[in-house]
Amino acid sequence: MKKYKILIVEDEVIVALDIKDELEILGYEVIDLVTNHTNALKTVQNELPDLIIMDINLKNSKDGIETAKAILQIQYIPIIYLTAYTDDITIEKASNTNPVGYITKPFKNDDLRISLRLAFSKLSIKTKDIKIKERLLHIGLDYYINLDNYNVYYKNILLKLSKNEICLLKLLVSARGNIVTFNQIEYEVWPDYPVSNNSLRNLVHRLRCKFDYKLIKNVHGIGFNLTMPK
């Protein structure tokens, strides 16, 4: 059976060590203990953990939710949040990064064990269609793009895009949230002949209909941009 690699992001060292000890008893491999945003990103880039246990409230650092967003820009890695805060605002912000679980502090070892079993159970189903090691870019909500082949997934569902829709999507992703003008779209999608404004707008409309509509924003009179998570 695969020995899953787990990264712990927790600024309370005693808590982190307790979690590490329990994970190792359960048969998991802890690849690193880090206390802040910067070191979490370094470990993700160097080690590619299978799962991250992330404290939401990281002192003297960007918080766990911002850290999760940055990690999802590099690679899709499932995250279980640790939190002492259960208010609606915190939970809603955390939910936007699509975590596979939450553990409320203070927690018992059974809470950790059950959360991990449920998380890896979800992932074993999900990875029938999406391999964890694919280079996935989170573009918002539950939408991900494989940057190697531009397959687009909603959760674990592969969306079907036409050749022109994929070309437009590449433009929007490459712009990283900046505006892609009407002229840029026309030149890249139809390089050999001019097209009408209706054809261009119909293409954008078809692509928007395959996503949550608010992910692709119409900038009046100029073009469009992808409202990717920051």
Could you give a short description of this structure?
With 230 residues, the protein is an alpha/beta fold. It has helices at residues 13-25, 37-47, 64-74, 88-95, 109-126, 163-174, 182-189, 197-209, and strands at residues 5-9, 29-34, 51-55, 79-83, 101-104, 136-140, 143-146, 152-154, 157-159, 180-181, 216-219, 223-226.
Adjacency order of strands in the biggest sheet = 2-1-3-4-5
State the low-pLDDT regions, or none.
127-133
Average pLDDT across residues?
Answer: 86
Count of domains: 2
Order of helices and strands: EHEHEHEHEHEEEEHEHHEE
The percent range for strand residues is 15-25%
By CATH, the superfamily of the largest domain comes out as Response regulator
**C-alpha Rg, in Å?**
20 Å
Kindly report how far apart the N and C termini lie: 37 Å
User: Which fold does the CATH topology of the largest domain refer to?
Assistant: Rossmann fold
Which architecture of the largest domain does the CATH hierarchy give at level 2? 3-Layer(aba) Sandwich
- What form results from the Cα inertia axes? elongated
Q: What CATH first level of the largest domain would be assigned?
A: Alpha Beta
Residue share in helices? 40-55%
The number of distinct helices, counting runs of at least 4 residues, comes to 8
Task: Summarize the biggest pleated sheet.
Answer: 5 strands, parallel
Judged by helices, strands and strand pairing, the structural class is alpha/beta
How many β-strand runs? 12
